[in-house]
């Protein structure tokens, strides 16, 4: 047992479990601007992680000229823009950005679904949630409103953006804990990667691969899912065959492949559009409606890599997923679709220092990208020897580039500071494409907001997007937070937090941390939300949050 802590009760139990309040400042701001403009049975939100309108511009030119398929789906949905700063930096991280539009609250870098630290806030930021305290997401709100819920991504499902919708954890790197939260948060449909964080022993797929395990606690969360009535699929054919029910479909032990490498490396993996369409098919069978979050996760990684073809192809794949969502919305007539990046990555520009700024033709822009048949990561894996000849041979074979000795040497010289794929993509972009980059990181620019079924204009804060989605579903995020997450310190001093064994004990009741049930007398009692542990810091004591339903049960049992 790590520690036992007794704390004076700071509020009456009756007051804490019998009432709730809302955040009047946010509610008033939101209600005056976007409240009640459109109510919908279904809400679909799609996020191309890490891009801005420069990427949209490049993809539009490619789709029009090379693919001859016309404009992008998002072009017909162009609306306003969103500010993206987080609580402690003008440039945001993905976890904090996702927390903002999933919950309506700014938070600290790496935090997921919890309030920000107080010791490093931007002077202009006034926190709207207590430090480390869990705040309800629009997915959790939809679930409590009786709607089906879903997530479809091309990353591990425990990655920053999906995690912010279904977990409450202070470090985005804790994939095992995040996955546990997601399992016990009862999301109906989950598609993506990351099977290794479900299991403690290797898993053999239906197509003969062996996936490694990352859990060290002995748990088999895949079996937990099966015991709870979920199907589990690991390939796109089995996903396509699904006709109803709850499902987790994880198609890799870690992340899925880039869109341009998928058919070559792992043809068993579905596209983002295929996952989106199947998720909609399954979720739309719920008569109360559904909430679905979709992420084109790897647009961001391509930006970090400064890899223009990777970024282009994954954005086009994302746009196909948006089309699948809008096609359903048009048929259904009671669905809104909202799409927006979380931030921009790489600072990509159409145009660079090597060009005359008013002289760029279609061929000059698009021909180099047409010839890139794989991502820089995949190309690097096929470099026979990391020397001038090896790099030149791989570039000739996979990107049809006749690379000079000087440029190959520039790649070699840069590699020790940024890595092979970053060096290769960055240097090749500079010398052999019309694409420019400003960094390998995020930037602070506003991002576009695209919408179907909503009128969005002007510049929003990204926190407002959460309240727009919540209002469309007729749910109150603040009310749900106050009903799902009550600080145990405000209820009783009769508790023990045992971090080593991941449990909270309150008298005779035991709460597994990160789960949706309590145990009393050997009997499991279902709860409406997770029991959330918050470790705190030098300024904030560690604690645990339980639901008001749990508090009422404890009071009835005379444990508080």
UniProtKB/TrEMBL annotation:
The UniProt record lists the keyword Phosphoprotein: yes
Cofactor(s) demanded: Mg(2+); Zn(2+)
Secretion signal span: 1-27
Superkingdom per UniProt: Bacteria
SUPFAM superfamilies the UniProt entry points to: Alkaline phosphatase-like (SSF53649)
Cofactor info, note text: Binds 1 Mg(2+) ion. Binds 2 Zn(2+) ions.
SMART domains membership: alkPPc
GO terms assigned for molecular function: alkaline phosphatase activity; metal ion binding
Residues at which Mg(2+) binds: 49, 159, 161, 295
Keyword Nucleus: no
Active-site residue numbers: 94
Keywords: Magnesium, Metal-binding, Phosphoprotein, Signal, Zinc
Residues the entry annotates as binding Zn(2+): 49, 300, 304, 342-343, 442
PANTHER family for this protein: ALKALINE PHOSPHATASE
Similarity comment text for this entry: Belongs to the alkaline phosphatase family.
The protein, known as: Alkaline phosphatase
Organism: Desulfosarcina alkanivorans
